[in-house]
Write a structure and sequence with these properties.
alpha/beta, single chain
Length: 1001
Amino acid sequence: MSVNSEQAQSPSPIKQALRAIESLQTQLDALKYAQQEPIAIIGTGCRFPGGVENPEAFWRLLRDGVDAITEVPADRWDLEKYYNPEPDMPGKVCTREGGFLTGVDTFNPEFFGISAREAVSIDPQQRLLLEVSWEALENANQVPEHLHNTATGTFIGIYLNDYSKVMSSLGDVSQIDAFSAIGNSLSVAAGRLSYFLGLKGPSMAVDSSCSSSLVSVHLACQSLRLKECNLALAGGVGLNLVPDTSIALSRTRMLNPDGRCKTFDAAANGFVKGEGCGLVVLKRLSDALADGDKVLALIRGSAVNHNGRSSSLISPNGLSQQAVIRQALENGGVEPAQVDYVEVQGTSTCVGEPIEVAALEAVYGKNRPQDKPLVIGSVKTNIGHLEPASGIASLIKVVLALQHGEIPAHLHFKQPNPHINWNELPLKVPAQRMPWQITEKRRLAGVSAFGFSGTNAHVVLEEAPVSKPVERTVERPLHLLTLSAKTDEALVQLAQRYEKHFANNPDLAVGDICFSANTGRSHFQHRLSVVASSSTELCDKLTAFSAGQKTVGLFQGKVTDSPKIVFLFPDTGSEYVGMGRQLYETQPKFRQAFDRCNEILRFYLKCSLVEILYPESGTSSLLKEAAYSQPALFALEYALSQLWKSWGIEPAAVMGYGVGEYVAACVAEVFSLEDSLKLVAERGRLMQALPEVFTFENQAILKEVTYSQPQIPLVSHLTGELTTSEIATPLYWSRQGQQPLKFAASIDNLAQQGYEIFVEVGPKPTLVDGLPNIEKVWLSTLNPGKDDWQQILESLGSLYARGVKVEWLGFDQNYSHQYVELPTYPWQRKRYWFEPNNNGHKKVDISSQNHDFLAQIDNQQLIEQLQITGELSKEELNLLPKLLGLLMKHPQQHDESKGEKQTDIAQAINAQFLTVEDIQVWLTNQIANDLGVKPDEINIRVPFDSYGLDSVLAIAIANAGKQYLGIDMSPLLLVHYPTIESLSQHLAQELEASDSEIFEI
């Protein structure tokens, strides 16, 4: 090619420059979008006054205009002692009321791997965060175990520290333990969430007073856009356990003596304190859409600033409020006039409200038509001012309003505040609930939170993008719902919650219900599975379960370990026309595997397997001919095995007989699918030609096959034992059809090797009759007496209930289902509260224990037993009666040093005769005491960490062991010997080895 030709084909410098500019512009646009990408809210969780324990209950409270303010509960503080209507009265609170949660003294520590002893020392705010964060993740259909070691961030607004004041007020410093500092550190509130869930993203507690939780949301959005994290938990928590803060706020006249937030009303005279916890689960919108998450709303923009030098530290600053609102709108690319509603700070103060409304008018009033006023309201009129959790309560309210297409009523608004220019400003306060319907115009809202620290925050929300209707090209006629819990009681309660949810939401698609429950929840030891065709049928079966009634298609079990599964593949004789037809028509994975076999067999058969198995009405089938029945049976069994495996049901061993052994060998990768079908097609042809005696006359075909050693254990039906290398040779397969079947021996051998579940992968159950008398689980894949889906889902449900891990995303990968909101976990709470001597610890008089022990034994018998050991000299033996007599006579009358020596000697003598069982009993009692549980709740074979046993408790147990056993006991022993059973055996050996050293003392 000439130089001129090359120059003619190459782009000109101008075109090259234009392309470079386009590339740079694309990169710039991508960078700008990343900086402004909307953040999707995909889950919420909350605990608010008025008995609100979830977003659904919160919406009912808002929709119904409920005033959740009550009198101060008796378990918080002595109302009569601290109440006085005069705000200036020292040490008094000017109001009798507030917004309170119930049961803040209760917790479910076992669920979170926390011991009862530690739970008592943990601030209930931290405990509340653990529960609500789990609920928020479940609401978002995010399986907590899947977040382990991921870049997930936690951003928690918190500043109240009342529980530490409760502990200090009791004046018993001896009860403060190593857990107290961790349990009451505000920074640990976020850190504990990250620790429990195993999160590796940013983790921080935020204190900017009343704006804390909204600032946390802002920081989470920034972190997501910077890709510091891919998922974020953000929100806040606050509890009012002592009157201290209320006393201070009374003196500042911020509290309303009437006990209500009367925002925008002429009677506004301060706020009423409330408490609660709220969290949202956040993702970048692009990720949420890609992951198929249910998007509740979008965060378009957010901003944070400070008042700077104002008239006072705690005074609001209108210009700063304007600035933070403008910045949030700019960050989200939103015009002020696009916003319909603002959830205001609204603390009902005479100074603050006119300033806030003026700031809103200055920004949101710009270019706003008079006939489309900005609607403003405050959730504080319902539940009070939640301080560190107030911003997140406001945000969740707006999310719910966007979802339900309705703005809730703003309570206590009777006479407009005369200091606000209502006639000049395009504003509206919704004294009654009002519609907020979806239109062509996108609905947007703002949320404000201003802290008395001077820190302001504003967030701009937008309704969720309209999801496209799900196109269901293929659907199962039946579905499987799975529920699980950590206790039987919790499982029953969870079933009851689902039953109620289905009754209240009859329009939920059963496929979406099961998809959300199966893929969006953790799977615990206590399990339930239900086969059903509709949500009504699910509801009926759960009702029966709650009533203790047995019902078809419902399976319950408790997981102890992961059982080993055997796939059994039967021979011909079990086939029938139409077998697997329902699966072929409604299960793409099964159809794909079956069609692949059909494609390979077209070189060996004269007609299609589909024509053989699923002939048109009125036509005959060739299935009775061996040349066709054997390849057809192989294809069906192979397709069923691939279907099971696509659901995560992997066999630990395989076995088959006749044609079934070829399928088993193929699944074990002895030979390829192509070679398998070639052999089976030839086998069928020969058996049809010579039905009485089968043999591979043409040995050459066996030599054309590529053999490999089995990749999973494969039982030979010739020997009844695990195969040897012979199975990967032509010789084995040349004899395969000539030897008698040793099926019973095969099953017996598998049972003895610990295989527990046998799944027959064939067209009907044929192998159960004539089996050895062994207690194992036998499951069928298909049954001509039932619909295909009925049988296979019943078996899958049984496998799940028995602890088999199911790949639920694989189970639903060929179906178009979407996430829906479902009930969250039912906590099994008990009271855990710091009280004097509440952990039962008492000082033990060891010398008294030894005196009791010595009084119970025969001294002469003890001396004779020691003489038998041969470890003591004659002189030492002669000294023992006097030594024992002194210990009995003067157990506590020696000086401290001598007493300690006597105790050591007596304890050593005591410990020498301890058996493994004795040590187990002592360890069980010691651990139960340290954990604050009953000894019968301790399982000696369960690892220590399952009880919530951590390093602090390990040290305590090691120290107690040193006193009780008289040997050095390192806390690391509880790591090396992680159960009571194994540790007791080790300690008994240590005692035996130290006998000689003991008596030298």
